[in-house]
Amino acid sequence: MFNARMNKFSLGFSTIVVTLFWVVPLSADFRVKPYLLAPEPDGVTVVWFSSHNQPGTLTVESQGVLSEYASTPIVADTLTYHPAELEHLPDTANTDAPYRHTIRVTGLSSDNPCMYTVEQGGKVFQSTLAAAPLMGSPVRFIVFADCETEPESTGKHTNWPQPNGDMDRVYPADQTEGFKQNLNVIQQRKPDFLAFAGDLTESGGEQRDWDEFWRHLNGDYGIIAGSTPIVAAPGNHDGFGGPGDLGRFGADGHRRADEKFRAYFQTAPNEYNPPQGYHRLDFGPITLISIDSTNGLPDNSEHDTNWYLTARDHGHDFNPGSDQYRWLEKQLADAQKRSKFTFVQFHHVPYSVGPHGFPAGDAGHDHGEDNQSGVPMQALTDLFVRCGVDAVFAGHDEMYEHSVIKGGHETLPGDKPTTRPHDLHVLDVGIAGDGLRGPFFGPGGRHESEIGNEHQVFLAHHDAPEVWDGKRLISGGKHYGHVEVNVTQSPDGIWQARLTPVYIFPLMDAEGTITGWERRVYDDEVTLIHRPIAH
Prior knowledge:
Elements: H1 2-13, E1 30-40, E2 43-50, E3 57-62, E4 65-70, E5 74-75, H2 83-86, E6 99-106, E7 114-120, E8 123-129, E9 139-144, H3 175-189, E10 193-197, H4 207-218, E11 230-233, H5 251-265, E12 279-283, E13 286-290, H6 323-338, E14 341-348, H7 381-386, E15 391-395, E16 400-412, E17 418-429, E18 456-459, H8 460-463, E19 467-469, E20 472-475, E21 481-489, E22 495-508, E23 514-521, E24 526-529
Parallel strand pairs: 9-10, 10-11, 13-14, 14-15, 15-17
Antiparallel strand pairs: 1-2, 2-6, 3-4, 3-7, 5-6, 7-8, 9-21, 12-13, 16-17, 16-18, 19-20, 21-22, 22-23, 22-24
């Protein structure tokens, strides 16, 4: 069933019309081409943005029957360019606020993807869409973080520290190419949805950075968002106004950035999707919960993930007692009864040897503190274990690191509460397309520190050693990539979730020039088994 459904998607891809855009000429009315959000068992939301205030038409073809919808354009005032950006634009003829179009398509099937066509201002876009699968269906999704798109990524090569060697090497491909090749491999795998654990953009308050994001997701670099729903959690960079006059983490800069994120990803609020932006997705046999980790309270305390933001600027605390925590606790308890597997994504990785693995503080890494630390997120570990969360996906430290919290006990739902041992897997998947960091403390780290990550079971920096033949890399190393999750049921009825850490390997010639790319897997694949609750 899984392969049949995926093959139907591949048939749909062949008919997609690609419209190239950067800063879109006035004659091209798609500012952002159609993409998919909020998949549910009977429908999905289609969103696009136009330059002009005129309705668009969405046509869905299902089993020979055409259904037609007309959109209502709503001006998206938050998606304008800051004056400081204008001098960097090659064309300022089309910089007014765009118009958002949102249509909820219902009556869909998960087994029979439908062709859909959007006509807007004389332009046409075609792709496929489907409903979320039913409980008994297999699921494939892909999760990563830290693509941090910006126009400056083209030509920008990230540092690529060598284990016990050169700390100032640069990666052979620039960040634009790295993210593009990552998405190319992902699209070939035909996932059911794509999950972002934050830092989609370099500066969420810069409209140019969002233009670059959509250039990758549904533009001239790739078209995956037109047929694959996006599930996004915010990162600290998504709330960053931008450097200098763009406002940084000041109140105005952060508000502008946060509003842009919401304009692109907020759907109609309901029980599972509050107005604050944290949300829950039930998708076949799994539940994925996305939470907002971008500012803990009290301000400038050991519980705070961003010492630049105040409660006034961003009040979505995640610590016990907060509104978000109470919402999360309720959703996890319900998911524990409903789903075969429960996953959580947020941005700030709680266990790490990277720069944000230092405890919260403002003294700097040389003194063992970080003002955007992920350590405060450890406050949620007990809840995750108690409610049977299988894996947490985060980013922020821009490395592939896998930690396992062992020895905890899951509380089973029911009239007579009982417990059973439960391991919690925590994966830093911040390797989408920005940095490729090595450790900041511990073996081979940049800073002397007595702290460490006792829960670490795999770190690409050490556990995937590079093998070279002269100037040609043969195997191993830190690369751009993602985690692929495949949830399937065996013939004897046992559900399993296979977590596969994928990296996109640059094939090289004898001179070290990249000649192609290949999908490879780190030696850290994990298979989780669902254990039914006896009643």
